[in-house]
Amino acid sequence: MDHFSYEHGALRCEGVAVADVAATVGTPCYVYSAGTLAEHHRRTRDAFAALDPLICYSVKSCGNLGVLRTLTALGSGMDVVSGGELFRARAAGCPPERIVYAGVGKRDDEIAAALDAGIHLLNVESEQEFENIARIARGRGATCRCALRINPDVDPRTHRFTTTGTKETKFGVDIERARAFFRAHGRDPHARLVGLHLHIGSPVTSTDPYVQAVTKALALREELLRDGFEVSVLDVGGGFAADYETGRSPAASDYARAIVPLLEPAVRAGLRIVLEPGRSIAANAGILLTRVQYVKTSGDRTFAICDAGMNALLRPSHYDAFHFIWPAAPGPGFAPHERTREPGMPGLVTVDVVGPLCETGDYLALDRRLPPPARGDLLAVFTAGAYGMSMASRYNSSPLPAEVLVSGEAFTVVRRRETYEDLVAHER
Ligand SMILES: *Cc1c(COP(=O)(O)O)cnc(C)c1O
Predict the structure, then answer these.
(1) DSSP assignment, residue 21?
(2) Cα–Cα 20 to 30 A to 68, which of 62, 210, 227, 368?
(3) Ligand 1, atom nearest to 276 Cα
(4) Is 331 helix (H, G, I), strand (E, B) or coil?
């Protein structure tokens, strides 16, 4: 699953004791494992090898340049959703022919930057956006490749905030309107409509919604081919789950077993497949380290008040998401066998793990079974690599956490902790 494990009572990331990282760079701090990033990239590539897909890592899941450089060196492409992410992907050295760009609200300057870079694919989300891309491309004497993001109206059965492939969401174009879209725009000489794009939601914890969405996309492609259009790319999107709890989510090979047979005939006949995994690459490759500042009881509740809260990791309060939390040095008898809501060992207490901010919604976990917490304990929040730092905020004037990348026995600070001067640097 990943390269975070307890040895002799202490949590290690690869060959590094995380307590040493905390002692050196302080807390809160994100710690990423380069080995885990590489392993998840390899598993995805191997699972889908029969399709020889272009794997475009989703930058928004964790966009630190150190992470992007690690994945770029492995041959990964990048899926970006803004001009800022395009800038990051380019700064990390990702070749433009491996970059795809989705997003419902692309501005003119963002479209121009994508055209100038010469990226692989612009994933188009509306008729007006397509017309705008075509206009900008014509004005610059440029051509670009576009895929139409279709909304297949498939329920991924995940949180409503991360459901993107049902009709009532803002993403893509209704699948019924796709043929008319191609008839209107499929022969534009500047914005060349060469493919279809899907991204149904995240995390999608069963394979079935992919089967439904891909089946619909392939049927649409057949119709478009009969109508005389080129549909040489199918971007299947991301959304593959991560192991927030040990062994509860499908692996890359499980998704592949369901999806690959559907696509193989078309791929043999020349269709190019793009995948956009984010969470399944980065989530288990990162933890958040936070230190318990105080422990207090109030009524029947025990609070472990930490130096990280919703500012550092928004997912628990925003999505009601579960992250396994455990002390980095849990003491004898408390080594966790698996990451679960119910560790089922004697001596645990029920704790609310909360942050320092002035908000009742500022928590990392509620009603959590933990070894008795003490002031000064170092806690690890697991599976925090994706949508952790990338969603962090400076609420309450909290400087953003440091980020550290571990590779083998060594670690590198890939983003220094922000200072108070950083907090006010843009203000006049
Ligand atoms: C967010 C996003 C992804 C990545 O989703 P994950 O769940 O992190 O795999 C892929 N494609 C698009 C268009 C996205 O918006």
Answers:
(1) H
(2) 210
(3) 10
(4) coil
Integer angstrom CA distances of residue 88 from 78, 83, 94, 279, 415? 10, 9, 9, 18, 14
**Whether the CB of 60 sits within 6 Å of ligand 1:** yes
* Whether residue 298 is found in the same domain as residue 176: no
- Ligand 1 proximity of 390 Cβ (cutoff 6 Å): no
Nearest CA to ligand 1 atom 3: 238
Residue identifier of the C-alpha nearest atom 10 of ligand 1:
238
Q: Is 17:10 a contact under the CB 8 Å cutoff?
A: yes
Residue 61 beta carbon below 6 angstroms from any ligand 1 atom? yes
What is the span of the domain harbouring residue 377?
A: 4-31+283-427
The whole-angstrom separation of Cα 206 and Cα 142 is 41
Concatenating the DSSP letter of every residue in 125-188 gives -SHHHHHHHHHHHHHTT--EEEEEEEE------S-GGGB-SSTTSSSSEEGGGHHHHHHHHTT-
Residue 165 has a pLDDT of 80
Length of the chain: 428
For 364-376, the pLDDT digits (tens) are: 999 999 999 999 9
Could you read off the pLDDT of 162-195 as tens digits, one per residue? 888 888 888 889 999 999 999 999 999 999 999 9
Ligand 1 binding pocket includes 278 (Cβ within 6 Å): yes
Q: How many angstroms does the Cα of residue 344 sit away from the middle of ligand 1? A: 34
The structure's pTM equals 0.97
The reported pLDDT for the residue numbered 170 is: 87
Q: What CATH code is carried by the domain that includes residue 362? A: 2.40.37.10
For residue 28, say if its preceding peptide bond is cis, omega within 30 degrees of 0. yes
How many domains are there within the chain? 2
Q: Is the CB of 102 under 6 A from ligand 1?
A: yes
Element (H or E) spanning 222, and its range?
helix 208-226
- Locus of tokens 């392939």: 218
Helix (H) or strand (E) holding 371: none
CA of 310 to the centre of ligand 1 (A): 22
Q: Are residues 289 and 314 in the same domain?
A: yes
Residues 261 and 321 both lie in one domain: no
Instruction: Flag residues of the chain having pLDDT under 70.
Output: none
